[in-house]
Structure formats: structure tokens, C-alpha cells
Amino acid sequence: MITITTNASMLGKNTFGIDVKAAVFGEYNTVEGLRMILTNELIKGRKHQIWNIGQGSNILFSGNYDGIILHGKIKGIDIIDETDTEVTVRVGAGEIWDDVVAWAVGHGFYGAENLSAIPGETGAAAVQNIGAYGAEFGNLVKHVEVLNTETLETETIAQSDCQYGYRDSLFKHQPAKQLYVVTAVVIRLSKAVSFNLEYGNVKAALDGKEITLANVRDAIVDIRACKLPDWTKTGNAGSFFKNPVISKEQFEGIKANYPNIPSYKVAGEDNKVKVPAGWLIENSGLKGFRHGGAQVYEKQCLVLVNADNASPSDIVELSDIVIRTVKEKFDIEISPEVNIL
Ligand code: EPU
Questions:
Q1: Ligand 1 interacting residues, C-beta cut-off 6 A
Q2: Ligand 1 centroid to 330 CA: how many Å?
Q3: Residue 176 near residue 113 (C-beta atoms within 8 A)
Q4: pLDDT digits (tens, 9 = 90+) for 45-65
């Protein structure tokens, strides 16, 4: 089944809770439905204006969208291959990612548990390469199934061609961004016991508890709930900014004044470190800073929230203020992780 609506409200289609209109909004729940939408008179010839969304958990509408918003509801979590040590699972792009994690944990499959409680759908997770607590989605991927919007044929993109990097993939850049709509993701999960508990306070949160898949998932859910706002109550899109990578030299300069500045290693780059943008924002004096209805979240400054009926420009302007203030204070340019439409 497909639906196509013109002048459609985007309220309920983005986790920031922004009430704007899209010129055209289309929904489909099969690949065939997506083909039908792409050949519809309202959409054909305007493919460059298409933005395919998941749960809308990583977008900010900066105003009414004079283009086409598509949303896929293709479902299904199916084991398509199994060995003694791993399972291969095909997941419809429209499955809520956290439901997939719950399913994996329930079946005793390892690898997805650290990515618990991240809002969003599975197709978008493959585009965004979501990550948390030392795990990245791209590392689970075997291949991604897409529909080519030009040929209307399905294609399979191997993990090695997905160009996964920190919150980055092939699908975020042209020409793939316009050419492909993700319809399903095939992931590999381990049947052998293997945990990844090295990041931050994950181990501490499990103190005294048996290390099981369910307990690790619960610990991650609890850590996130303490730090990150629930978008169903306070609109937000998770981390608004990426953690910047800076030179070791610049880092040492900042450390001389701020001995407690946290940092992470950057794989393959000995002379560089990644620093938490949340720390930079907090230490620029912006914790809880408010601009119109938008606010820097008190418990995790990396997150901008819709505190009180924020307009799109409240949030965009707050983002600009944050970027400018951090630049003035630390001479570091941070950039949004959220897609601004
Ligand atoms: N920190 C502060 N002040 C803040 C926020 C953080 O001092 O306001 C410090 C913390 O004390 C800690 C360090 O910065 O020492 C890192 O904080 P945290 O562990 O919360 O992680 P993060 O680097 O701020 C990243 C991801 C999150 C992910 C966490 C855990 C990005 C852009 N964000 O945040 O992802 O949950 O690590 O792995 O990489 C998301 O993408 O939406 C998201 C929430």
C-alpha cells in the first residue's frame, strides 16, 4: 500500500517535534510500493528533491520543505543463514532499530546490544552508521539492499563498498544519496559469547551483576536514560554535533589549562585525537543555554532540545551560537551531525 499526500504536516515525523509542511509526503511498505511512488506524476522528475526519512530522529527541518519526503515501512526480521557461530539476519529498513536489538538479545545473539535504545529505523541506521559505547552499526553489516531510483532495480551493496566511517557512509554523499533508497539491511550477529564493555562507564554500570546480554542491554538503556532526553517528552535528535578530531598539539595546549579534558584515540592517526563536543560546549559556558524555545541540554551539552515550542530558526540559530562560541573559546570548529533540511 502507498499513500501520497501534498502539503503534509511533518509533526510526528521528526523527533524534534517541529511542525512544518512538506510539499509532498509519500509512504510505502514494499519495494514495489516505492517503485510506484517514484513513477508517480507528482514525484517523477523531482527525484533530486527526495529525502527518505526513517523515524526522523536525525533531521532538523529548518522550515517548510519544498520537496518530497518519503518514508518506508518495509518490515521483517528474518534469519537467512546460520552457522555454529553466527546468524545472518535480513531486516526491513522500516523496522525500529531498538526492536531489532531487543529481538537479538532475546534470541541470544551478540553484537547489537551496545546499540540499545538509539532512536530511529534500521535503514537510517545503515545510512548514518549509528554508534554508541564502542560499537558501530557498520561493523554488523554484511550488505545493504537498495532501490536504484533511476533504474528502479534493486541492488546489493557489500559492506566493503559502504564506506563506513564515524557517523558516515556512502549513502550520505552524492551520487549515492540521491540514487539509492535503502530497503533492507543484512547484518551478522554472533552466537559465541562476546561483550564489548570497554567504553566509559559501561563496566561500572554492570558492577555486581552477571554479565549477560539482557543485563548489558539494561545497563546501556539506563546510562542513556540518565544522560539523554526522551524525544517523546522533549523533542531532540540525539547528538546534534559530531565529536571533532584535532591535532595532538592543539589538544596538549588545551590540556595545559584543562587537565581533565577527555579524549579518544583516532584509529590510524597517531597525531590526532577526538574530543567530546559535549565537553567543549559545557566548558564554553553553554550548559542549559537557551535561545527562544531551544536549549542546550543540561545533562549532555551535545544535545539541543526543543524545550518549549521551538521554531526551526530557534534551533538553527542556537546551533550557530554554539558553533561560534566553541570556536572563540577553543579555536575548534564543531559541525552538526544532524541533517538540516
Ligand atoms: N561530557 C561533558 N559534558 C557534556 C557531555 C559530555 O563533560 O555535556 C564529557 C563526559 O563526561 C565524557 C565525555 O564528554 O567524559 C564523553 O561523553 P559521552 O560518553 O556522553 O559521549 P559523547 O562523546 O558525548 C558519543 C556519541 C553518542 C553516544 C555516546 C556513547 C557522538 C556525536 N555522540 O557522545 O551518540 O551515545 O558517545 O557512546 O559521537 C548520538 O549520536 O545521537 C549519540 C547520542
A1: 132-133, 199-200, 227-228, 238-239, 242-243, 262, 276, 278-279, 282, 300-302, 337
A2: 18
A3: no
A4: 887 899 999 999 999 999 999
Which residues are catalytic, by number?
A: 167, 239, 337
- The two beta strands, 21-28 and 65-72, are parallel
Which residue(s) pair with 168 in the sheet?
A: 165
Q: Is-contact 313 294, C-beta < 8 A?
A: no
209: DSSP letter: S
Question: pLDDT tens across 131-185, in order?
Answer: 999 999 999 999 999 999 999 999 999 999 999 999 999 999 999 999 999 999 9
Contact 122, 100 (CB under 8 A): yes
Which residue do the cell numbers 540518565 mark? 226
- Coarse DSSP helix, strand, coil percentages of the chain, rounded to the nearest 5 percent: 30, 30, 40
The neighbour count for residue 114, using CB atoms within 10 Å, is 23
